[in-house]
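Pair request: fold both.
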Amino acid sequence: MDEALLRQLTDDDPEQRLKAVLQAGEPGEGPAPAALVEGLIRRLHDPHPGIIQAALETLTRLVEAGRATVGAEPLARAVALAEHDSALVRAEAIGALGVFGPQLDDPPRVARLLAALEDPDPEVRRTAAAACGDLKLESARERLALALDDADLGFEAAFALASLGDRRARPALERALDDRRTRLDALEGLARLGDPAARPAVEALTRGWRTAWVDRLSAWSTLLVLGVPEAGARIAERTSSRRMEERTYALFLLGRHRVQEGRDVVAAVAASRTDRQRETAIDALGRYGDEAAETALLALIDSPREDREARITAVRALAYVEGERARSTRLRLGRDPDPLIQQAAAWSPPS
């Protein structure tokens, strides 16, 4: 761990403290050091609102990435900060309430989230609606339904209601398909809702000749969830796209939905040492989560001819497989001399 970063978190100069907080939130692998997490928690009491906001954002990012856990004290502090004078701090605190701590039905948390739905700042209200949906707060259902026609909050309320399985969300989400700014989130919301009545609206999006490739693939992904199995074959077709980004997304979706029509493609790319999308395919293979995927990943991990990056990706992908061989291999590799292999073996998919 960088001792200089820990010292910088307590520097007398607020600019230095802010730089340290932001640096702590940069992407990384493996668990964040406990001392660093504690240092960030102390910054939740900083006299400067901008540092408090940044500390909340960094802690939230670490928790969401599975790199840190926080207990009762930072949760209580986030509840208190949700009433801060600064709307920016309030919004970050409300976002943190969506992920902090193990007791997601904690009464002070729930009460503060419900109150934030009435906050005078629209960004705070939107963040509160998102957190209510992520936590599936039944007590927020009717308040969210009343907000469906709110110009500032309507879409976020619909998305949250979709997470609660409330079909009143469908009309607002379908209308949002017409706006490129909200289209991808609307498709995700309709997938969460799982209402087959949304199929015509989503199918129409796949037929539009001006529909962007990412929107079209996302629409097919949503149709799979809505019970249209032939959408899987359409996703598999796009693994031959000449666009690298489109091919990457298609491979990911095949694994995410365990599309059997695409398994052979995923396996072939995962086995190819010259394919630039190999690591994406290895991850997708793990997402199939079955014995065949387990066997292929174990063979890749144990092959002396494989490069380090492919082995690391395969070890991480084993986390999607529940087989006994996968579990015992991850335990064994947790003692591997390569620290990145150890981190990959300890990794778990976000819940």
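--- second member of the pair ---
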Amino acid sequence: MNKPQCLERDKSWISWSKGALAQVRYDTPENAGFSNDERRAFTIALQGDYVNAAKEQQKVINDIEDSAIHGLHLQRLAIYTNFFDQSKAQQIQKKANQENRQLLRPLAGVQYKTPATKNLPQGKQASSWLQDRYSSGNDLLIAVNAMLSDLDWGPRTEQFEQSMFNLAWHIGHVGQQPERDLGCGPDGLWRLSDGTFYVIEAKSGADPGHPVYKSDAKQLSNSMDWFRKQYPDSKAVPLLIHPEEKFDSHAAIPPDCHVITTKRLEKLRQSVREFASGLVVEDAFRDPIRVTSLLNSHNLSSGNFLRSFSALGRK
């Protein structure tokens, strides 16, 4: 192609390029019908006909299988419904939040539910979850690398908390985010295979070189109070993620408090990276015995985790 012809809009070049583009045929997007229904619902809503907009939005919902996306469109249905039936809209929003915890909470709030688990051994739990999640070792590696890029110090605190949640499942625990989902409780809650818990407060945005301040220590103590109310017969370790394990002189250290510090977090990230590399060798993630061995060798088993990747809080 002659560059000046292109830049100067030469008539012969324009004719040639239009002829080339005329032969191009585009595949019809798989979600074309889905998008059309959604656009139609929005257009009807703009006209003030919220009842029929809700009916069109319901057509969108009926064709969605992914729970997170299904929840998002339920929330849009709730928005339309709220114009003519506020009580029903709240019921729809409650269901939307149950399917996707990152969505708005209903006015009445969200009731905490304890995780339903089969109490499988850690390696078996991890293998089962990984097989459900990933179709190949390459997919697993890509996801773990993305997770580890967020598991680092800095202002992206929400992404850090999400990566801690994801990490729990990758290494065979059950993860929750009560503060995000309910507006109360800890940033993270891990249920281990032996029935014990980690109550996690993440301060990944804290400045290095400063001790744990009184407000952060109090927040962790409050989260432990929340845990004891929800699980009166269970045991938990308070786990703080902070650059320093040293607490300010005015801060009260929660009993048995462990801290994932700057050095410990880097050690954890490296262990998870090596663990993931081992998982993809001959699809080891599909074998609970090999997963268990990898968890042990990289100190990610529940018996080794705190000792390897945290330090006791101190004055």
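Observation on the second member. DSSP finds 14 helices and six strands in the chain.
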